[in-house]
User: What shape does this take?
Amino acid sequence: MTEAVVDDIVAVLPPLLNALEALGFFQRHLHPPAFASVMNAIGTPDEALQAARAAIGDWPEQFAGLRERIDRACDEALAAFAGIREVERGNGDLVAVFRALRHVPRAQEALYPLAVQFPPVSSFFLNAANRENHDLLSRLEVGASEHTGIFHDHNEPGSRGGFSAYVPEYYMPGRPMPLVMALHGGSGNGRGFLWSWLRDARSLGAVLVAPTATGPTWALTGNDTDTPNLMRILEAVRSRWSIDASRMLLTGMSDGGTFCYITGLDGASPFTHLAPVAATFHPLMVEMADATRLRGLPVFITHGKLDWMFPVQTARQTQAALSAAGANVTYREIGDLSHTYPREINAEVLQWLNGE
Assistant: This one.
């Protein structure tokens, strides 16, 4: 690698990673009434990234692939910032904010293959507790093989019914891993939602599967085309990788969390644990659920006190109803959480899944 290329990489990676961390903070703390204060809290890391991006020189042809990934990660991160800055200036609404944030997982997807070459990128894709875990970092140095890393199965942007998966690079067929199947929110997709869980699956060791609903959102009413599709995906994953049948988690955000209840409370569900986040729940679901399935079923409910879409009282009532029906409910109510995904809960959920 030429000196000029190394200098450019050293100059651009820190502001790129800082910008992505700031966007992650923004996603987590986004609450419509507090929009201005959250914008103020993240500062202007996009300015430093813009300057570093503009200063990248010409690279020799053999580094074209590397250059393309760095350019794409920078451009997607800057596009996310441009979108939320536009709303900050009074042009646009919450829908425009969510549209802008779609660029964040695209930036991460472009950047992730560089983790094996650049230690700061590898550390970025670990949860905070494991960023100095040198044993883990060394196990990740092997990079992806044909059986590990990130996979997309009929899950191109705009498609429905496919899935994306992540298998830790240190996966060994002789050692079954827990499974996390994570369901996106309404109008989302599995390819983007994968990144809500990747750091923790990579840090703590879990096969992560992020399906995309067969329709615009999960089958919350009417004909359920999603449960058979999830079973198809689960069968495909279990035929390819060694999964611990006693640790199979179904989790999801918003509509995805609600669908966790709909499909996960069915007596035929193969999932051993349910962990809905920011979900809604109708008391009739308990009456319609399989009583044997409910008895002792481990359920981990996470909800934000500031949730404006599904008020927290819903989650409190759900906790009471499921507990009364015999489920083994763990409940986390997060004081500063609005209707957004709290990635900080993932490690605790995995420890709970592992019986720790």
About this structure: The radius of gyration is 21 Å. The mean pLDDT is 96. The chain has two domains: 3-105, 145-353. Residues 3-105 form one domain.
